[in-house]
Design goal:
Blueprint: E1 2-10, E2 17-26, E3 31-35, H1 42-49, E4 57-62, E5 65-66, H2 75-80, E6 82-85, H3 97-107, H4 112-125, H5 141-153, E7 159-163, H6 171-188, E8 192-195, H7 199-205, E9 208-213, E10 216-221, H8 223-227, H9 233-242
Parallel strand pairs: 3-8, 3-9, 6-7, 7-8
Antiparallel strand pairs: 1-2, 1-4, 4-5, 9-10
Helix pairs in contact: 3-5
The structure holds adenosine-5'-diphosphate.
Length: about 240
C-alpha cells in the first residue's frame, strides 16, 4: 500500500521543487500507471518509494513504513518489500533461469524447501516452465523479461515497481507482454506502479493512470475517465500517436 499526502521533494535548498503537493493512494491489488514528459518527476517518485531519496515535506507511507522518519536500519527492510523491474533485465549471465531465481531467493534467506516449491510455480505462471535450465543468452528478449519478472515474483514483494519494462522489446512482443503482465497482475492481485512513455500501455493495462507534469499530478483517473476527457493533453497525445 502506498500513501502520499501533500508530498514534496526539493533536491537543492531553495531550488525548484521536483515534486509538489503529491497526493496518491494506491490500494493493495491496484495497477497504477505513471506517465508524463521527461523531467516531470516520475523517477523521483520511484526513488522516494525505494528510500533512495527522502521527502522534503508531506507524509509518505509505503508498505507500513513511514518514510518521514525511517531509520537506516529499516531501509533494507523497505527495499525487501518492493520488487523492481527495469527495461534491461539484469540477469546473471553465468546462471541458468532456475539458478537466477534460486540465487535471488537464497539472498533473502529462503529455505531450500521453499525454493524448490516456489520456483516451478512461478516459472509456470510466466510461461517459462520449459526453459528452466537455459542460460539468459539462450533466451529471446521477451523470455528474458519474463525471467526478470519471475525473479521478482519468487520473492513475493508487497509492491512491484516497473520502470519502462517493455521498452527494449519489439512491437509484437510488447503487445503480447502487455496482456501477459496484466494477466499475472490480476491473477496474483499484485500491487504495481508502472512507469512508461507508452500511452497505449497505460490505457490498455491499468486500473488508474497518473499523469505528471512539472512535478505535479496533472490528472489522475481510470483509463475510461481520462479517455472521456478529450481536452486532456494525455489523450490528445495518445490520439496523435495512433494516427
Ligand atoms: P522524470 O523521471 O519524469 O524524467 P525526474 O524525477 O528525474 O523526472 O526529475 C524531476 C525534476 O527533478 C527535474 O527538474 C530534474 O532536473 C530534477 N532532478 C532529478 N534528480 C535530481 C538530482 N539528483 N539533483 C537535482 N535535481 C534533480
Amino acid at each position: 500500500m502506498i500513501d502520499f499526502e501533500h508530498v514534496s521533494k526539493e533536491y537543492k535548498k531553495g531550488g525548484r521543487l521536483a515534486l509538489e503537493d503529491i497526493n496518491l493512494h494506491v490500494d493493495d491489488g491496484e495497477f497504477v500507471f505513471l506517465v508524463g514528459p521527461s523531467g516531470s518527476g516520475k523517477s523521483t517518485i520511484i526513488k522516494l518509494l525505494t528510500g533512495e531519496v527522502l521527502p522534503s515535506g508531506g507524509r509518505l507511507m509505503i508498505n507500513g513504513f513511514n518514510l518521514n522518519n525511517i531509520s537506516d536500519r529499516q531501509i533494507p527492510l523497505l527495499r525487501r518489500s518492493i520488487g523492481v523491474i527495469f527495461q534491461d533485465f539484469r540477469l546473471i549471465e553465468k546462471k541458468t533461469v532456475y539458478e537466477n531465481l534460486g540465487f535471488a531467493m537464497r539472498a533473502v534467506g529462503s529455505s531450500p524447501r521453499e525454493i524448490k516449491k516456489r520456483i516451478p510455480y512461478v516459472l509456470e505462471l510466466v510461461g517459462l516452465e520449459e526453459k528452466t535450465d537455459r542460460y539468459p543468452n539462450e533466451l529471446s528478449g521477451g523470455e528474458q523479461q519474463r525471467v526478470a519478472l519471475a525473479r521478482v515474483l519468487v520473492l513475493r514483494p508487497q509492491l512491484i515497481l516497473m520502470d519502462e519494462p517493455l521498452s527494449n522489446l519489439d512491437a509484437k512482443l510488447r503487445l503480447h507482454m502487455r496482456t501477459e503482465i496484466r494477466r499475472i497482475q490480476q491473477e496474483l492481485k499484485l500491487t504495481c506502479l508502472y512507469v512508461t512513455h507508452d500511452q497505449k500501455e497505460a490505457l490498455t493495462m491499468s486500473d488508474r493512470i497518473m499523469v505528471m507534469n512539472k512535478g505535479k499530478i496533472e490528472q489522475i483517473g481510470t483509463p475510461m475517465h481520462l479517455y472521456d476527457d478529450p481536452a486532456t493533453p494525455f489523450v490528445a497525445d495518445f490520439i496523435g500517436q495512433a494516427n
